[in-house]
Specification:
Low-confidence stretches: none
Strand content: 5-15%
Mean pLDDT: 94
Number of domains: 2
Shape: elongated
CATH class of the largest domain: Alpha Beta
Radius of gyration: 18 Å
Number of helices: 7
Strand order of the largest sheet: 2-1-5-3-4
Number of strands: 5
Length: 167
């Protein structure tokens, strides 16, 4: 006797607002938000580094909170507003962070940069004049193999000075 099992992927309607645009689609509710953003919406600024929430390469804002999109299911994100680096790039605060990162030498290969930029944004929203310790704590969930962290810390500190009044 031969047994066969047919796997059916359970799909539900997912509604999101991503970078100001409405998204409605059917998805497996257990699918990772990271995969929906990259594969379905083409938002490749969201990267997969570790797939375990340890590296910060997949960071996005979910309803204003910074989260690792590799750890968020599309089902739990239903009804949420998401901002990726592509959406944040349209702001003046992004421009200040980008210039400060370049000026401090905080960008090399660029793989981790979107995650660091969004972590910096999250910090500066809460504390517009952070101390070095605050910055190091805020980026502690992000990994970089190229630049070392001193130039990234300097870039965030420089952005806090250049962007007075923006945060």
């Amino acid at each position: 006797m031969l047994w066969s099992v047919r796997w059916r992927i359970w799909k539900v309607k997912i509604r999101l607002v991503v970078n100001g645009r409405k998204y409605v689609g059917e998805n497996d509710p257990m699918r990772r938000l990271l995969d929906l953003l990259r594969e379905d919406l083409g938002l490749t600024g969201v990267k997969e580094g570790c797939g375990e929430g340890e590296c910060g390469a997949c960071v996005v804002f979910l309803d204003g909170r910074i989260v690792n999109s590799c750890l968020v299911s599309t089902g739990s994100a239903d009804g949420s507003e998401i901002v990726t680096i592509e959406g944040f790039r349209e702001t003046e605060r992004y421009r200040v962070l980008e210039e400060s990162f370049v000026e401090s030498g905080a960008v090399q290969c660029g793989f981790c940069t979107p995650g660091f930029i969004l972590a910096a944004e999250a910090l500066l929203r809460e504390k517009s004049s952070p101390e070095e310790e605050d910055i190091r704590e805020a980026i502690s969930g992000n990994l970089c193999r190229c630049t070392g962290y001193s130039s990234i810390v300097e870039g965030i500190w420089l952005a806090s000075k250049k962007g007075k009044g923006l945060w």
